[in-house]
Amino acid sequence: MSSKYIITITRQYGSGGHDIGKALAEKLGISFYDKELISIAAKESGISPEIFKDVDGKAANSLLYSLSTGLYSYGNSFSSMGDLPVNDRLYILQHKIIKELAEKETFIVIGRCADYVLRDYPNVVKVFIYANIDSRVKRAIARHDIDPARAKQAVQKADKRRANYYSFYSGKKWGMVDNYDLCINTTNISIEQAVDIIYDYLNVLGN
Amino acid sequence: MSSKYIITITRQYGSGGHDIGKALAEKLGISFYDKELISIAAKESGISPEIFKDVDGKAANSLLYSLSTGLYSYGNSFSSMGDLPVNDRLYILQHKIIKELAEKETFIVIGRCADYVLRDYPNVVKVFIYANIDSRVKRAIARHDIDPARAKQAVQKADKRRANYYSFYSGKKWGMVDNYDLCINTTNISIEQAVDIIYDYLNVLGN
User: Fold this and answer.
1) Measured between alpha carbons, how far is A114 from A109 in angstroms, rounded to an integer?
2) Closest partner CB to A184 (pick from B182, B188, B203)
3) What are the residues whose beta carbons fall under 8 Å from the beta carbon of A144, sequence distance 6 or more?
4) In this predicted model, what pLDDT tens digit does every residue of A169-203 receive, in sequence order?
5) Can you list the positions of beta strands (E) in chain B?
6) Best mutation target, A204, A205, A207, to test chain B (most B CBs within 10 A)
7) Alpha carbon B176 to chain centroid distance?
8) Could you tell me if residue B82 is left (phi over 0), alpha (psi between -120 and 50 degrees) or otherwise beta?
9) Fewest Cβ atoms nearer than 10 Å: which of A42, B40, B64, B116?
10) Which residues contact B106 (CB under 8 A, 6 or more apart)?
């Protein structure tokens, strides 16, 4: 890898993607962004982080057309965002923050269509983390204190929300291999093993 | 990894999957099976390897029902295969040979629904190799002496045949991440890098 690179991690709910990203960032000594982007967006916009947290990862009205045609431009404030729903405002702000970060540092970012946002950037490694439904349900119960009786439904609902969000803003299908450089199934491996796999992968790319 | 393991490689046409498998087998010092399975099947059945080569990777009539319900049993010869099309005979024989090999040695096998055939076996690492269409067309032209004007069509046709073959015999969708442990995009990496990525992956699994 070149001296500056970005790793985007897309993950199925309960697959361990967040923990893998966090541990990998620590191992590599680079920045890590997941919910952290909301705090930055909140700070930049003056909108309460609580409001943003509530809509994070949920698609709203279609920005795709205006973004793709360049009809939509945004500045440093919300002054140009008119009456856009808060979901779309958050997407635009995160989109802008991710691009700004990409100009200046090496980092790992979780979700947020970052692979799509950075599609034209060099040195972006796009990782997809997934696992079978049983192991994801098990992990979700252990990690998020979800009622076991409703865990499967919750996992499927969370994935559906992520898929909708991704296809809504990117126009592409979430979880298709074509969008990623490396896809790792965590059904039978630990967080540490997944971290090592990506770490080794980066080393091979640097060869 | 335990002392005995099997690597199945499913690959999009032109993605370099065959070469990656062959080089990895050499690096690991283990057996490699691709077209080699046809020679073994021909030897066991007494049918000409040329006839088998002609139908390799093409789905024929549905065996799925009879195989899945256990109504279909096969012996060492073709005596129990009745009037099955040669495609299905080849599938059954390869299926049987792969299972026999899995009992006694460590190897890499390319295609042939091996990931599905060995779905209940322990220590099977299922790899999917893919790349974007442009890089696959380029590789196919360089490697297979395909007419550049028709290369894209040929690549897409080959993939369609593989997808049909896989879903015909396994009842599952070819190229979906869920079927694999590790998926590697070879668009921007070399054969050697892909080999090293899988090699390192196996090492991490052995930790």
Assistant:
1) 7
2) B182
3) none
4) 888 888 889 999 999 999 999 999 999 999 999 99
5) 6-11, 31-33, 107-110, 124-130, 182-185
6) A204
7) 15
8) left
9) B64
10) B3, B4, B5, B6, B28, B30, B31
